[in-house]
């Protein structure tokens, strides 16, 4: 079993006090903290190895290029892609999805359909809405059942011969639900549709194998994976990538340019216009190394035990409703407290040194479904402990005490 | 409870959160405006009637939001009712100044009456928007004449 207290020591930011209380960071689903190893690697790279990548003849440029390409290979192995040329560096999950929305969708027949789900993050809703307007496509969605799982019967009904793409999250950032992708992908492929998976909330928690899933596109960000922000990837099957037009244009993605005309480079460079965040790529690589050393199976086992413990404890708090009780969940837990708005809970917990996220979590359609304005969301990383859950429970009871008004109502005016 | 929190969640605030005043839709209103805080989903409508002398004869609000935004809205309606348009806009200026500026005059704070207790919100910068949300909506209602689309739809009285 993994030792979270030892791991916590490797994250400098976690060893501090906030409002005079030891920091308890329960917001890793928004962004995880960074281990010393990642910080050190980025800093030493900037001090001794930095130069722009590609086409440099000088030593540093070649070194930087090689190091970035090594990270690409590391990511390929991390998600078991067939080739490193299937890994495209992007700004993050959002840019990865936009790339597919505005590259892949260009060639779709007007009237083709795209299926998303009711539990998507705005980043896996809005690009499709805009692409549908732009290319005359139709957007459909799979509804969410009350327990936070997808309504797969409805999916079967909306999947038709017109479906071109299913864009779906691997794990919900609000409900924690892990979606049964194998089944969803197999069904889509049977009718010839492609599948894009938003893996932002999945890769930090369990092993992802894109070949086994057989998804066509897979996207995730480094910053939720203990790496730096500003970098992520788009995985796409090679045969699809070869046919896709570029989404952004500029340096680095070309083969030859004349003043009238340009030919484009082969993938992955075709999709990487402009200088990438070089030091972030290096940090991304260090983060993967960090995770692999601990082992995703260990992380998954530990976090599953932790989230189950949190569920048991939290559901005993009176007047509290957990939003999302699917059978398979990542370590994300949303809840609401009767008559106390999430924002007030967030402020009081903050004063206790506990960092949680409150609000709609960029998933407004889901809030509309549950008819709630906002939830409190706690999300665990590999550095959180059972003890922190106990402190959270005490703090929630404090919230209720602070917000309670024992007096009877005064007359209305 | 630490002092900062005690100052933030004072009894008056909690009371107006739980039992807000003028918390209803005004069926016949001369003006209405919508205020939304994207960060946390606070979502309110303010309704008011302005007579020919520019006096606010009635003002109500409805919507969902946190204790700070709801109590601020409730107290705002009690303060604004009967004031002229000009006075209301001045009070709005005073309230926002109190929460965002360091040089808010004593006179300004005095005219805000019990709303002065929202001064403690200043120590919670992320919550300033909650307290000022309804005042921004009030300003909109007093300076524009159109009634927003979808006005009053799905506005439940209680928090869920």
Proportion of residues in helical segments of chain B: 40-55%
How many DSSP H or I helices of chain A?
Answer: 14
How much of the polypeptide of chain A forms β-strand, as a percent range?
Answer: 15-25%
Shape of chain A: globular
What letter string, H or E per element, gives the SSE order of chain B? HHEEEHHHH
CATH topology of the largest domain in chain A: Aspartate Aminotransferase, domain 2
CATH superfamily of the largest domain in chain A: Type I PLP-dependent aspartate aminotransferase-like (Major domain)
Instruction: Count the DSSP helices of chain B.
Output: 6
Based on the model shown, name its key terms.
heterodimer; A: 413 residues; alpha/beta; Aspartate Aminotransferase, domain 1; Aspartate Aminotransferase, domain 2; 2 domains; four-stranded antiparallel β-sheet; 17 strands; 38% helix; B: alpha+beta; Sufe protein. Chain: A; 6 helices; 3 strands; disordered C terminus
Description:
The complex is a heterodimer of chains A (413) and B (160). Chain A is α/β, with parallel strands linked by helices and 413 residues long. Chain A folds into two domains: 132 residues, Aspartate Aminotransferase, domain 1; 255 residues, 3-Layer(aba) Sandwich (Aspartate Aminotransferase, domain 2). Chain A is 38% helix and 17% strand. Chain A has a seven-stranded mixed sheet, with helices on both faces. In chain A, strands 13-14-17-16 form a four-stranded antiparallel sheet, with helices on one face. In chain A, strands 1-2 form a two-stranded antiparallel ribbon. In chain A, β13 and β14 form a beta hairpin. In chain A, α3 crosses α10 and α12 packs across α14. Chain B has 160 residues and is of the alpha+beta class. Chain B has a single domain, classed as Alpha-Beta Complex (Sufe protein. Chain: A). In chain B, strands 1-2-3 form a three-stranded antiparallel sheet, with helices on one face. In chain B, α2 packs across α3, α3 runs parallel beside α6 and α4 runs antiparallel to α6. The C terminus of chain B is likely disordered. The interface between A and B is medium-sized, with 31 and 32 residues.
């Amino acid at each position: 079993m993994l030792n979270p207290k030892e791991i916590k020591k490797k994250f400098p930011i976690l060893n501090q006090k906030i409002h005079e209380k030891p920091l308890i960071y329960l917001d890793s689903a928004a962004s995880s903290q960074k281990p010393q190893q990642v910080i050190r690697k980025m800093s030493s790279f900037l001090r001794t190895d930095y130069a722009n990548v590609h086409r440099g003849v000088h030593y540093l440029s070649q070194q930087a290029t090689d190091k970035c390409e090594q990270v690409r290979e590391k990511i390929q192995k991390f998600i078991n892609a067939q080739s490193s040329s299937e890994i495209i560096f992007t700004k993050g999950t959002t840019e990865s999805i936009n790339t597919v929305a505005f590259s892949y969708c260009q060639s779709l027949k007007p009237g083709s359909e795209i299926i998303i789900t009711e539990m998507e993050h705005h980043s896996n809703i809005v690009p499709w809405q805009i692409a549908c307007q732009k290319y005359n496509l139709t957007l459909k969605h799979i509804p969410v059942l009350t327990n936070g799982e997808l309504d797969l019967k409805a999916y079967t009904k909306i999947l038709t011969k017109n479906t071109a793409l299913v864009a779906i999250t691997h794990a919900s950032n609000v409900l924690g639900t892990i979606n049964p992708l194998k089944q969803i992908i197999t069904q889509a492929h049977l009718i010839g549709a492609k599948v894009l998976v938003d893996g932002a909330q999945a890769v930090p928690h369990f092993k992802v194998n894109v070949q086994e899933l057989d998804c066509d596109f897979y996207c995730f960000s480094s910053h939720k994976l203990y790496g730096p922000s500003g970098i992520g990837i788009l995985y796409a099957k090679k045969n699809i990538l070869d046919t896709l037009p570029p989404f952004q244009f500029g340096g680095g993605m070309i083969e030859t340019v004349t003043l009238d005309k340009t030919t484009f480079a082969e993938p992955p460079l075709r999709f990487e216009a402009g200088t990438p965040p070089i030091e972030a790529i290096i940090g991304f690589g260090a983060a993967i190394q960090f995770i692999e050393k601990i082992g995703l199976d260990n992380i998954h086992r530990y976090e599953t035990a932790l989230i189950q413990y949190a569920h048991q404890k939290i559901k005993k708090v009176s007047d509290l409703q957990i939003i999302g009780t699917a059978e398979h969940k990542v370590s994300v837990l949303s809840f609401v407290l009767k008559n106390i708005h999430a924002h007030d809970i967030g402020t009081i917990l903050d004063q206790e040194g506990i960092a949680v996220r409150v609000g709609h979590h960029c998933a407004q359609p889901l809030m509309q479904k549950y008819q709630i304005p906002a939830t409190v969301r706690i999300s665990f990383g590999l550095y959180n402990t059972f003890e922190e859950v106990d402190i959270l429970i005490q703090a929630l009871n404090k919230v209720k005490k602070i917000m309670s008004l024992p007096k009877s109502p005064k007359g209305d005016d | 409870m630490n002092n900062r929190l005690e100052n933030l969640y004072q009894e008056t605030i909690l009371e107006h959160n739980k039992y807000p005043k003028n918390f209803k839709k005004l069926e016949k209103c001369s003006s209405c405006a919508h205020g939304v805080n994207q960060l946390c989903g606070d979502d309110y409508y303010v309704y008011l009637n302005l007579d020919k002398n520019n006096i606010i004869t009635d003002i109500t609000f409805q919507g969902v939001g946190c204790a700070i935004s709801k109590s601020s809205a409730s107290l705002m309606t009690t303060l604004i009712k009967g004031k002229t348009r000009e006075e209301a806009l001045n009070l709005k200026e005073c309230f926002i100044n109190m929460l965002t500026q360091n040089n808010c005059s004593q006179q300004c704070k005095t005219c805000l009456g019990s709303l002065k207790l929202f001064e403690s919100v200043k120590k919670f910068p992320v919550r300033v928007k909650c307290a000022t949300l309804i005042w921004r909506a009030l300003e909109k209602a007093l300076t524009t004449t159109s009634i927003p689309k979808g006005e009053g739809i799905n506005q439940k009285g209680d928090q869920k």
